[in-house]
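Worked example 2:
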Amino acid sequence: MTHASSDSGCGSKAPGGVRVMCRALSSWSLIAILFMSGSAAFADDAPPQQATVDADGVQRVGILGGSYFFKPSKIVAKAGQPLEISVRMEQGIVPHRFVLDGPNGKPAAEVDLSEAPRTVRVELPPGEYQFYCSNRLLMFKSHRERGMTGVLQVRE
């Protein structure tokens, strides 16, 4: 009479090399799942952040960047007044950039975020402008494609 084993091949009775391989595969599987779900975990459903106007008449807003996100990802500013955007990054090893598209299709601002925080100053006409990280690692999706994006709305 034979008995079906509940051992999946990676149990305590498996040879040493098989157990090591099973542990490695389990670890890499967990890392892959966390890596692929990273941008979804930081989805920003928060309302737009209004830039504040200081006594000098300059609008200011701060952005936090991290593993494939910018917070806030929606910013509202007034047209006709300068806007300073201060961007700082969470600790990490992946390099990032901040690019703010301008009205003519060219960047209105672009900075490397390896030295944080970085501040850019712009004055834009009314409209909606995308900001994003333009970096891309080898054959992987760009940081922009992975969700490291946002929108600046400039209103009258």
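DSSP finds one helix and eleven strands in the chain. The first helix runs from residue 16 to 41.
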